[in-house]
Amino acid sequence: MTKTIKTQISGKHYIQGEWTGEAATFSSFNPVDNTPLDWQFASAKNQDITAAAKAAKRAFTQYRSTTPVQRAEFLEAIADEIQADIEVITAAAHLETGLPMARLQGETGRTCGQLRLFASTLRAPLEPKLVDLANPERTPLPKADTRLGQLPLGPVAVFGASNFPLAFSTAGGDTASALAAGCTVIVKGHPAHAATSELVTRSIETASKRCNMPAGVFSLIQGNTPQVSTQLVNQSEIKAVGFTGSLKVGRILADLCAARAEPIPFYGELGSTNPQFLLPQILSEQAEQLASTQVQSMLMGHGQFCTSPGLIVAQTGEALNRYIATMTEDISTLPAAAMLTPGIASTYQAQVDALLKDTQVNLIAQGQAASASHQTRPTAIRVSASTYLASKELQQEVFGPCAILVECDTQEQMLQIAEELEGQLTATIHGNESELARHRELIEAVAYHVGRLIFNQMPTGVEVCHSMNHGGPYPASTDSRSTSVGSQAMKRFERPICYQNMPESILPDELKLTDPKVMTF
To answer: Which keywords does this Swiss-Prot/TrEMBL entry list (predicted)?
Structure first.
């Protein structure tokens, strides 16, 4: 299989429907063996980025005129082509990320499911179109005919995520939603899975030709330097950015987008500790089960999910002691494992080491010792509520298999923590129905700091559906009004336009009164 993959990898960029560039700058990496893979890739130069941006702008003029059905057929074709090449794509992703094949096959299914969800939404929009009919007889001023439509923003830059080489990368949710909205897309491939990005791009290339889409509707540029990313978001042709990654890098790019001569929206998903609030009654009844479920969730993907539960808040007492005992037993048996990249492993280890040096931090348990420098151990620590509230370091996300248990003396302290949370993608409140009814103040406080409020379930796993919200107040995301998952994600790449007194013959079809989805006033 490795030989089969190698014959399909050019290591080049895909721009204006052509593969271009010299593949001799960087290699992708096998995190399990801690060795470079035998694939060389080009790193985009200034002229490559400029060419991709101009190609995207040219293609946008044609692509924005496609019908919703044509775009739906394009998205479905991409899903078909990815599914047809799933064996090679997942084999490459397995080598580049070390993620299990079963996980990658499931992620491929999710990727294709996202594409098809947007296609179905284009064929059958959920929301009615709004039309205010004219009333020329109204006094003292006549009322004009006004109809609210949507226009795509323009070329969109998408940054692939390290931890989801398929569902949040080349043909992931940002790309799918932007294409669905009528925007052209330039993907900056993540260097940790450059081969996977190229293989998925080849599926998009085949689908584009099959559906007669304009050259430049999609481009892939590769690179392993910050300059590639910063130059891309500074291209005047780029009208929006989708990003999933670290707070540090995301904030740099967000600030660049805001500082442009023409500021553009930056939709960044930047991180979350996904707190778990354990109410007293359910903790007393299910301490052992809750602890085991916590460990299982925080170890999914070796803790490298954006929804990994990294914070636990509960009251001290006998029930919490039982919870800690089970957590200790479960974590102590876990092996060390490789992370997605050596850089991620190094950052995780430095953060954990710093936490353990804090005299106010107590170790609950660690997994088995690592046998190599690129491996990391699962870790759980405990601190008092007052220590946690006084420390910004303790409140930051540790990306990896680490959880912080905050021990509260009172329910008031639990509420205080909820009120002082930074923005989160998710939070879960574990409680019986009767005690949930008694903690409405806590529930409301948590709700104002999260994008998804969960009850009695762990946060890992994000359903791709119409009602999903994957976002949250900063720093979970840079725009709490939007989602990066689900059919509503395409709204990020559209803007409203009001057509006033436009003749019926030239109105967009979806705004004509013959369309059953039109709501008149």
So the answer is: Oxidoreductase
> What CA–CA distance (Å, rounded) separates 323 from 340?
30
User: What letter would DSSP give residue 370?
Assistant: P
- pTM to 2 decimal places: 0.96
Residue 179, token pair as written in the block? 């294409």
Name the amino acid, one letter, at 304. Answer: Q
d(CA 208, CA 201): 10
Selection from 218, 99, 219 nearest residue 166 by Cα: 99
pLDDT digits (tens, 9 = 90+) for 375-411: 999 999 999 999 999 999 999 999 999 999 999 999 9
Rounded distance, CA 14 to CA 205, Å?
9
Residues 6+ apart with CB under 8 A from 465: 117, 486, 487
The answer to whether residue 6 scores a pLDDT higher than 70 is no
Of 494, 473, 470, which is closest to residue 483 (Cα–Cα)? 470
Is residue 402 part of the annotated active site? The answer reads no
Which residues have C-beta within 8 Å of that of residue 169, sequence separation ≥ 6?
A: 160, 161, 187, 189, 190, 193, 196, 197, 200
Q: What does the pLDDT look like over 139-150, one tens digit per residue?
A: 999 999 999 999
Confidence check: pLDDT of 372 > 90: no
Whether 50 contacts 177, CB under 8 Å? no
236-271 confidence digits (pLDDT tens): 999 999 999 999 999 999 999 999 999 999 999 999
Residue 44 contacts residue 14 (beta carbons within 8 Å) = no
Amino acid type, 269: E
**DSSP code of residue 303:** G
- Active-site residue identified among 107, 205, 237, 269: 269
* Separation between Cα atoms, residue 496 and residue 262, nearest integer Å: 18
Tokens 């009844």, located at residue: 285
Residue 269 falls in the annotated catalytic set: yes
Distance CA 157, CA 238 (A): 7
Catalytic residue among 306, 402, 422, 494: 306
